[in-house]
Amino acid sequence: MRHLIDILDFTTDEIDALLDRADDIIANPEKYQEVCKHKKLATLFFEPSTRTRLSFESAMLSLGGSVLGFSEAKSSSASKGESVSDTIQVVSAYSDIIAMRHPKEGAPLVASFRSGVPIINAGDGGHFHPTQTLTDLLTIRREKGRLDNLTVGFCGDLKFGRTVHSLISALSRYTGIKIVLISPDELKLPTYMKTDVLDKNNMSYRETTDLVEAMKELDILYMTRVQQERFFNEADYIRLKDSYILTAKKMESAKEDMCILHPLPRVNEISVEIDDDPRACYFKQVACGKFVRMALIMKLLEVEA
Ligand code: CP
Fold this sequence. Notes:
With 305 residues, the protein is an alpha/beta fold. It has two domains: 7-128 and 288-301, Aspartate/ornithine carbamoyltransferase (Rossmann fold, 3-Layer(aba) Sandwich); 131-285, Aspartate/ornithine carbamoyltransferase (Rossmann fold, 3-Layer(aba) Sandwich), CATH 3.40.50.1370. The chain has ten helices and nine strands. The protein has helices spanning 12-27, 51-62, 84-91, 107-114, 130-144, 162-171, 191-199, 211-215, 234-240, 282-301, and strands at 40-45, 66-70, 97-102, 119-124, 151-155, 178-182, 204-208, 220-223, 259-261. Strand 5 (151-155), helix 6 (162-171) and strand 6 form a beta-alpha-beta unit. Phosphoric acid mono(formamide)ester is lined by residues 49-52, 123, 132, 263-265.
């Protein structure tokens, strides 16, 4: 039985095959309408979500399966003190596969030790978000036609941004990747990401606080929200939350074919005037999320079209 806790649980060939399958689902959705008939997906969300939970549910319904679950810890018996381990042993008796989001780093990994069915990490604290990464990779490949030889700028909250950590890990598998880390000093990429991923894989990277200075070299600009829910101090959040706001003026030095991504939700970091720019790909990215999660569910349930 396979789980997806960290994007590096999959080989590069497995990731590429998932993206190929997602492309085929987009081209031929009718082929996949019943492949998960009689299968049940449980979505256990101990933290808020719009895209991840609903795209998982939409994905399973589009494969002919069913969904059950909860969208907040307080409507589950976690609010009475039930452990993750016990919750998972219960829910794996009711479902064939589980997508789980939890505020504590490592909770989905703990769940995978006690589960009788595949566990998908749908985001664990400020750690990882591997299915967002599959979404990001599919979007990049569809927009740029490749996953190598790209200069990727990550801008905003690189400390708590779990989507950033997972995508950098995944990009370490591809060649010719240059990373530009754009953040305030307080929200820099954690040291473990630099030593265990960037340095270990000899990846080219640099750090800057200046988005405009970095803009002209980027093929991809990955904007992120400052993660209010991870701050211990409200004053720090207020001081840092609007560190970067992407505007049409700042886009003047960007490449004509630069691709702007954002895992969403957006707060202020991308001005709505950018939404009409053909380089704004974040709503296409949202759509990719459903198709790649369909491919992932099929892989973990070992079903074929
Ligand atoms: N990108 C993402 O994880 O969005 P949600 O928090 O809405 O699921």
